[in-house]
């Protein structure tokens, strides 16, 4: 009996508080909105809420909220209040384009030095010519033969142009040396004009062809006649 009486004593105050709060709510329900606002301003918002809803005994946690996963395979929940770190994009250095032809940092172009540095290309070109000639003897495909002949012709033209340029440079060097020597000897040097240089070049070309054989000379003369004939046909005729 004593145990039941103690439990009733503990239960009665809570029941009386609920009854009192119910009666307060009933009285407040009969008041107008304006009267409720005045009462709230008079007793304070905190007391007003406690009278209607009771005290909130729940306390906020002191430390930061810990987000836990119900399943370890789920992604971890992150707080929306924590700012997302900004991705640091590295600055790309602007590429500076330089033209070596007009850039003083690249130095001046030395034609003679350039030809000396890349003189090995002539040897490589001759090796390629020999290799293509060997492939021409073995190939039986007409299309492949046509490609190889076209490539061989281009390499031969490049080799001839390079050889001609070297000969012209050597001739100019000899002429310059001769002029300087005449100045030193106290004589008036003779400067060759374009026509004289052209005649000398033709004579030298004839001598080179003569060394290769008479057939080479005949083919060269025939080709030259064909070029002159084409030029004469293309030349405009006078209007009578």
UniProtKB/TrEMBL annotation:
Q: Is Iron-sulfur given among the entry's keywords?
A: no
Keywords (A to Z) from UniProt = Nucleus, Ribonucleoprotein, Ribosome biogenesis, rRNA processing
Query: Entry's Pfam families?
Result: RRP36
Q: Tell me the segments the record calls region Disordered.
A: 1-23, 53-92, 135-240
GO CC terms of this entry? 90S preribosome; nucleolus
Q: Where is the composition biased (Acidic residues)?
A: 1-11
Q: State the source organism's domain of life.
A: Eukaryota
Ranges in coiled-coil conformation: none
- Basic residues compositional bias: what residue ranges? 217-234
What this protein is reported to do is described as: Component of the 90S pre-ribosome involved in the maturation of rRNAs. Required for early cleavages of the pre-RNAs in the 40S ribosomal subunit maturation pathway.
Family the entry assigns = Belongs to the RRP36 family.
Q: How does it assemble?
A: Associates with 90S and pre-40S pre-ribosomal particles.
What protein name applies here? rRNA biogenesis protein RRP36
Species = Galleria mellonella
Q: Which gene encodes it?
A: LOC113511398
């Amino acid at each position: 009996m004593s145990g039941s009486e103690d439990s009733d004593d503990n239960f009665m105050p809570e029941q009386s508080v609920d009854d009192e709060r119910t009666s307060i709510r009933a009285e407040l329900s009969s008041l107008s909105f304006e009267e409720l606002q005045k009462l709230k301003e008079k007793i304070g918002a905190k007391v007003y809420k406690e009278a209607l809803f009771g005290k909130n005994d729940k306390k906020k946690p002191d430390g930061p909220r810990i987000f836990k996963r119900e399943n370890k395979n789920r992604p971890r929940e992150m707080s929306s209040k924590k700012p997302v770190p900004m991705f640091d994009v590295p600055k790309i250095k602007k590429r500076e384009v330089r033209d070596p032809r007009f850039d003083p940092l690249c130095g001046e172009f030395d034609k003679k030095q350039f030809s000396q540095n890349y003189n090995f290309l002539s040897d490589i070109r001759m090796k390629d010519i020999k290799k293509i000639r060997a492939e021409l003897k073995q190939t039986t495909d007409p299309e492949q033969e046509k490609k190889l002949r076209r490539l061989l012709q281009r390499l031969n033209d490049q080799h001839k142009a390079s050889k001609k340029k070297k000969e012209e440079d050597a001739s100019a060097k000899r002429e310059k040396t001769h002029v300087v020597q005449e100045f030193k000897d106290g004589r008036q040097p003779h400067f060759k004009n374009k026509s004289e240089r052209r005649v000398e070049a033709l004579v030298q070309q004839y001598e080179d062809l003569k060394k290769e054989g008479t057939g080479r000379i005949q083919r060269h003369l025939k080709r030259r006649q064909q070029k002159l004939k084409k030029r004469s046909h293309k030349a405009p005729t006078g209007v009578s």
